[in-house]
Design goal:
The chain has 2 domains: about 70 residues; about 45 residues, no CATH class. The chain contains 5 helices and no strands. The longest helix is centred in the middle third of the chain and has 35 residues. About 5% of the residues have low confidence. The chain binds zinc ion.
Length: about 120
């Protein structure tokens, strides 16, 4: 799990270094500057995009912090799906080390929900 920690710390450092996307201050334009009617909605949209980006970044950062805490406090259960208790494939963890569910549970279906895999195993 050492490489997972390294990935998490690198991701976190990258997010912290990135900083918040600067939001344009409303009313930053000087009074005598003529406001272009066409530009106003665009600026508004840019602000929405920027704040969405900041929110996603904050959520990602929180997920990474949480994963680092879990990795420190419960290294034995780190990388185990919180839904089906199966180990999350290392390849998935390398891409998304903050993932708490395996790919199937994240997608909403896993073998325990009556998939054919388990029945075939029972047959042997
Ligand atoms: Zn699962």
């Amino acid at each position: 799990m050492r490489q997972i920690r390294a990935i998490l710390e690198r991701e976190r450092a990258g997010l912290v270094a990135g900083g918040d996307v600067a939001l344009r201050q409303p009313g930053a334009a000087t009074a005598h500057e003529k406001v272009d009617d066409d530009a106003a909605p665009l600026a508004e949209m840019e602000q929405v995009i920027a704040s969405n980006r900041n929110r996603e970044r904050a959520q990602r950062l929180a997920a990474i912090e949480g994963a680092l805490v879990r990795l420190t406090n419960q290294p034995d259960t780190f990388g185990v799906c919180e839904v089906c208790d199966e180990e999350i494939p290392l390849r998935r963890l390398e891409l998304m080390p903050w993932a708490r569910r395996c790919t199937q549970c994240q997608a909403g279906d896993h073998p325990q929900s009556g998939g054919p895999r388990r029945h075939r195993a029972d047959f042997r």
